[in-house]
Write a structure and sequence with these properties.
Largest sheet: 7 strands, mixed
Strand content: over 45%
Low-confidence stretches: none
Mean pLDDT: 97
Number of strands: 11
Helix content: under 10%
Distance between the termini: 40 Å
Radius of gyration: 13 Å
Order of helices and strands: EEEEEEEEEEE
C-alpha cells in the first residue's frame, strides 16, 4: 500500500521560505513520478509541481521561479522548496503519486 507522509508546513511571513518533504513508501520510488498539489479554503485542489522518475519538472505558472521540486531516491523523499512566499500561497499542500494522496500539511503565509 502506497503511503505518503508530508511534513514541513507552518506559518511564515510574506517573502519567507519553507521546504516541504514527502516521505513515500509502498512503491519503487525511483520509478515513480511524484507531485505536489495545494488546496485553499473553498477552492479546488490545484497542481503545484511534478517531477518525473527521470527528474524532469513541471510547475504551475503561479509558482514558477519561486518553487522548486526535487527528489532524493536514496531517501524515498520528494521536496518542495518554496521561496518568496505570498499570502496567496496559503493552502494545505498535498503530496501525490498515481492517485494516492498524503494527509496534507498546512502552509500559512501572513502579509
Amino acid at each position: 500500500q502506497v503511503q505518503l507522509v508530508e511534513s514541513g508546513g507552518g506559518l511564515v511571513q510574506a517573502g519567507g521560505s519553507l521546504r516541504l518533504s514527502c516521505a513515500a513508501s509502498g512503491m519503487i520510488f525511483r520509478l515513480n513520478a511524484m507531485g505536489w498539489y495545494r488546496q485553499a479554503p473553498g477552492k479546488q485542489r490545484d497542481l503545484v509541481a511534478t517531477i518525473t522518475s527521470g527528474g524532469s519538472t513541471n510547475y504551475a505558472d503561479s509558482v514558477k521561479g519561486r518553487f522548486t521540486i526535487s527528489r532524493d531516491n536514496a531517501k524515498n523523499t520528494v521536496y518542495l522548496q518554496m521561496n518568496s512566499l505570498k499570502p496567496e500561497d496559503t493552502a494545505v499542500y498535498y503530496c501525490w503519486n498515481r492517485g494516492f494522496w498524503g494527509q496534507g500539511t498546512q502552509v500559512t503565509v501572513s502579509s
